[in-house]
Structure formats: C-alpha cells, structure tokens
Design a protein that fits this description.
Elements (H helix, E strand, L loop, with lengths): L2 E7 L3 H4 L6 E2 L1 H14 L4 H20 L4 E7 L4 H18 L4 E6 L2 H4 L2 H5 L4 E6 L8 H17 L1 H24 L2 H22 L2 H11 L1 H25 L15 H22 L4 H26 L4 H33 L1
Parallel strand pairs: 1-3, 1-4, 4-5
Antiparallel strand pairs: 2-3
Helix pairs in contact: 2-3, 7-8, 8-9, 10-11, 11-12, 12-13, 13-14
Length: about 350
C-alpha cells in the first residue's frame, strides 16, 4: 500500500505568509515548517506540519520509503472555495505520488472539514489531530483567551454558534418580557433543559452509543432523544404531583399511563420501520421489546406510583401483572407471525 501523509491547511494561513503550496517531500515539508514557524511562532499550523513529518518517518520504518510520501496542501480563506482549492492542490500531489490512501493530519475541526473532499480522490485511512500543549502565565492565558474569543466571534464557521444562537435566545427572552407572553418563557426553559439533557447524555457516555445509532438510523436517533426527553419531564412533573409537591397550576400534570407508554414505543417503531426498509426483515426481538415497554409502562408503572404515594392495592397489582404477562406472550406470538408474513406480503 502506498500512503500519503497529508497536512491540510484548509483556511490557507500558510499561503497567506507567502509560501507556495503544494509542498511534497520530507525535506521540502520540513523546510516549509521552519519557514512558517519563524514567521508565525504562535500558530498551531507549524506544529501540525512537523507532526506530519514525524508520522511520515514512522510509516517509512513500517512500509518502506518508496511506499510513503508527505505533503502539505492549502485551501482558501473563502469558505466556498476552500475545499475546491484543496482538491486542486491534492491533484497535483497525486500526479507526483499516486497514493492508495491518505493519512490525514490537521490542527483542528476547521481543517477536518476537508476530509470529505479528500475522500473523493483517495480513501482516508486515519485522521491525526495535533493539539498543542502549553503552560502559560496568567497574562499569556488572558491573551490566549482573547485571541480565541476574537476568532470565535469573527470567523463565520464559529460565529453562528457563539453569537447567532445566544442572540436569538436573548431576543426571544426580551420579546417575552416586552409582549408578556409566558409561552416564550416555557419554550426557552424547555430549550435550556434539552441542551442540559444532551450534555448529560454526552457526559455519561450514552452519546457514544447514540452516535453509532445516528450513523445508521438518523430518524430513530432524533425520535429517541426527543421521546426520552419528553418522558423524563413528564415523569418528573407527574411524580411531583403524586408525592404531594406543590407545583404552579400551569405545570401540574395528572398522570396518564398512556402518554409515556406511547412515547417510549415510538422510537422502537421507528427503528423497526427503518430496519425493515434497509434489510427487508422484521426483527422479532424489536416487536417483543415494543410490547414489553408499552405493557410495562401502561400496567406496572401506575402501580409503582401508587406504592410511592402509599395507597397500593394488591389486587390491582396482581391484575396488572397478569395483563402485562399476557401482553408480552401475545407479542411473542405476533412477532413470530409478523416476521414470517410481512416480507412475503411486501414483496
């Protein structure tokens, strides 16, 4: 396999310092890195260039010098032309060294936006992000924070998140005060809760599992996150009412087992549909899981809430448990029949 170690400066900082790209070959890339760091010693691009040389040296030991090359290509400060410029320079590199795959080197997410463009020419087998480790005094830290805040506010790719979204939320809040619409406050509150909910998923590692689901089942991912969020809010409000916590009248919720039961079955149904459209098969376990979730929340959860409230009826609990068991058994029979009959019906 012939591998090209490629550092992509997508926004063209290197080119703006008067250095011509593309640059091919270890010695030339090393010379470029020295030139650039002398002109911009505070920029991480130079460190990424040296990292590309280091990666090249490591691959040469394993694959041989004739099978590895290192190069630097630049894009453009114009976001619309950046990837096209990268591809133009990459074509020149590939004309000199016809690689089978690319080892992509970057110094951050902005450069990695060019990965999809690079993959139109050669497969990217690995991505190496170079993070510069620094130890600075208080004054230098303040200067560094000011630099990145200025970058976050001025550069279009970050500005919509650092300025646009907060400004929109503040605009809604000010509007709600001006015209006295409480519903806007509720929307903002739910929005903040939803963001914190996503942060909880990310912090506890649930996001990593959901990210894999997202790659394969986009609709199911979205439906699952929204459904889980609504059910959690609903249960918190309903449980508060059950255990006697006083809530504002507009936030009080009378528990209805049908609502969470249906909401939790919707993601399972979405997954089942997407899976069938992809593979032409209905998985029996998914059907049983849907029935199990619906029956559990419809029959068992109300009894548990009654137990928390201190007025559990044992006879009701036994009847609910029996109904739950029957529903699961029926779902198993239905799953077997559906998995055999549906593919032939659709065909």
């Amino acid at each position: 396999m012939r591998v090209l170690v490629l550092y992509v400066d997508r926004d063209g900082d290197i080119k703006q310092e008067g250095i011509t790209t593309p640059v091919i070959g270890r010695d030339n890339v090393l010379r470029l890195g020295i030139q650039y760091i002398l002109r911009r010693p505070d920029d991480s691009d130079a460190n990424a260039v040296f990292a590309a040389v280091k990666i090249y040296d490591g691959l040469v030991e394993r694959l041989g010098k004739e099978n590895v090359e290192v190069a630097v290509v630049c894009g453009s400060p114009d976001e619309r032309m950046a990837n096209l410029t990268v591809l133009e320079e990459l074509n020149q590199v590939l004309a000199s060294f016809d690689a089978d795959a690319v080892y992509f080197v970057s110094d951050g997410p902005s450069d990695e936006a060019a990965i999809m463009a690079v993959q139109t020419r050669r497969p990217v087998i690995s991505v190496e992000r170079v993070v510069v480790k620094q130890s600075r005094s208080v004054e230098e830290t303040v200067s560094l924070i000011r630099y990145y805040l200025t970058k976050a506010v001025k550069e279009p790719e970050y500005r919509k998140y650092t300025v646009g979204v907060p400004s929109f939320l503040l605009f809604l809040y000010a509007l709600s005060i001006l015209i006295n619409l409480s519903i806007i406050n509720y929307i903002l509150g739910l929005g903040v809760l939803f963001i914190l909910f996503l942060m909880v998923l990310y912090g506890f590692g649930i996001y990593d599992f959901l990210k894999d689901v997202l790659r394969r089942y986009e609709v199911t991912f979205t439906v699952s996150v929204l459904s889980l969020f609504i059910v959690i809010i609903y249960f918190v409000l309903a449980l508060s009412t059950v255990i006697g916590i006083r809530l504002p009248s507009n936030l009080s919720v009378q528990f209805n087992q049908l609502i969470p039961s249906l909401l939790l079955v919707v993601p399972i149904a979405s997954y089942s549909v997407e899976s069938f459209l992809r593979n032409g098969l209905i998985k029996r376990g998914v059907v049983v899981l849907g029935a199990f979730v619906f029956s559990f929340f419809y029959f068992i959860i109300p009894q548990l809430l009654d137990m928390v409230a201190g007025h559990l009826d044992v006879l009701d609990l036994l009847q609910s448990t029996l109904a739950f068991s029957i529903a699961v058994i029926v779902s198993i029979i239905a799953a077997v029949a559906l998995s055999r009959a549906l593919p032939s019906i659709v065909k």
